[in-house]
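I'll show an entry:

:::
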Amino acid sequence: MNRIENYAELETSIVTWIQNYVNENKLKSLVVGVSGGIDSAVVATLCAETGIPTYVLSMPLHSKVDSDRLSNDYCKALEEKYDNVTRVRVELSGVYEKFHHSLNWWTESKTYTTNELANANTKSRLRMVTLYQIAGTVDGIVVGTGNKVEDYGIGFYTKYGDGGVDIAPIADLYKTEVWELGKHLGVDQRIIDAPPTDGLWEDSRTDEEQVGASYEDLEWVMDSEITEHAKVPEECTQWIGKPLTEQQKSAVKQYMKFNRQNKHKMISIPTFKL
């Protein structure tokens, strides 16, 4: 799979696309949450390249030291390099703890128990609220950082959390393409080398550990279109005349599992029609 031949041209195309959207809608600024991962680092850099006032946010929330340092360092580096970039740091751990404490009566009841996934999603939503609060004060928009597999393949994001954005400049790029674009843009090598993680879990589990497949394998599943054309994708032993490896079979199963359970995120909200 080699969809992109020239990353310099891709950079120019995305930067121009963002500029056109902002100008056409008479907006004044861009707001990006920077997690310390490759996706947000690439998006923040592309926004900086537009020349439009850009606010890059690091939002530690029970974050591990390494990811917090990467986020903070990269925001600082962008602010030093680009005159249009402003670094903003918002500590959300205390906010999360107060919110969590206010619901103790519910989670400590005999009927309901603490749900780790709900807690992780709440962290993502607190960050979304923070981004929109900042955007509202600077007449800006929140710029999304999701890639193609996450946004349109397996729905690996929080609904109304990191999925709550105004534009999505890299949502048609595979993760491997985002990595290559990051190298072209000169993203900090530590970020490029860091294992992808959403940073929402206390045990620092990686994306691959959560999904059960690598981004490269999930991209193969998406690009092969096996899930669209095979009658029962999970039962396929070969595709287009070639036998599937055990790794490919496993990737198809994991892709279908997440695609089905997260389908509600990737389609329009069901609406009752008169």
The CA atoms of residues 20 and 26 lie 10 Å apart. The mean pLDDT is 93.
